[in-house]
Amino acid sequence: MIPSPRRATLYLRLFGWKYVKMIFWLRPTVIEISENHLVVKIPLNRRTRNHVHSLYLGAMTVGAELAGAGLVEYLKLDIDKKIIVLFKDVASVYFKRAEGDTHFTCLDGYKIKEAIIQTSRTGERITIPVKVIATVPDKLGDESVAEMTLGLSIKKKD
């Protein structure tokens, strides 16, 4: 069952507070969530900006991670709760500076769902590339400022 964006944001922040303090520190917000996509916003503020007043590279990486892994967390609830998610690698291409609140969009829900089903059935680790696109809607509309590809590794817990 896919939660509302408000409930997903609350879960994300509680998870950050309990397990990954960096997530809590950045104050991400879930903008949209469905079976096929997830959009997470990282605000540009004193916590997240660098010396040239754009989103810091570390904050951009966290945003990409949340968009990809967040989708897995919600999809696995309906299929198999005993799934572990890790990232094996990250490849990023930056086109422009993110000089505003940045939205990280993952549209690979169908691919992630198939990987979860396959891992649940076979018990084998599967690694798939998941693409995340970063945009700054307030300043640049739908033009992307970065594209990140994450090597998402999915395994069934023993």
Explain briefly what this protein structure is:
The protein has one domain (5-156): Thiol Ester Dehydrase, Chain A, CATH 3.10.129.10. 39% of the residues lie in helices and 32% in strands. The chain has helices at residues 5-18, 21-26, 57-79, 109-122, 137-140; strands at residues 29-33, 38-42, 83-94, 102-106, 126-135, 144-156.
How is the topology of this model organized?
Layout: H1 5-18, H2 21-26, E1 29-33, E2 38-42, H3 57-79, E3 83-94, E4 102-106, H4 109-122, E5 126-135, H5 137-140, E6 144-156
Antiparallel strand pairs: 1-2, 2-4, 3-6, 4-5, 5-6
Helix pairs in contact: 3-4
Span of the ends, CA to CA: 24 Å
Output the strand order for the largest sheet: 1-2-4-5-6-3
Q: How big a fraction of the residues is strand? A: 25-35%
- What percentage of residues falls in helices of 4 or more residues? 25-40%
Low-confidence stretches: none
Q: What's the name of the CATH homologous superfamily?
A: Hotdog Thioesterase
Give the tally of β-strands.
6
Q: Mean pLDDT, nearest integer?
A: 91
Computed CA radius of gyration, to the nearest angstrom: 15 Å
- What is the 3D form? globular
Specify the CATH class: Alpha Beta
Biggest sheet overview: 6 strands, antiparallel
Q: Could you name the CATH topology?
A: Thiol Ester Dehydrase, Chain A
What is the helix tally?
5
Summarize the helix and strand pattern as letters: HHEEHEEHEHE
Q: How many domains in all?
A: 1
Classify the secondary structure makeup into a structural class.
alpha+beta
* CATH architecture classification: Roll
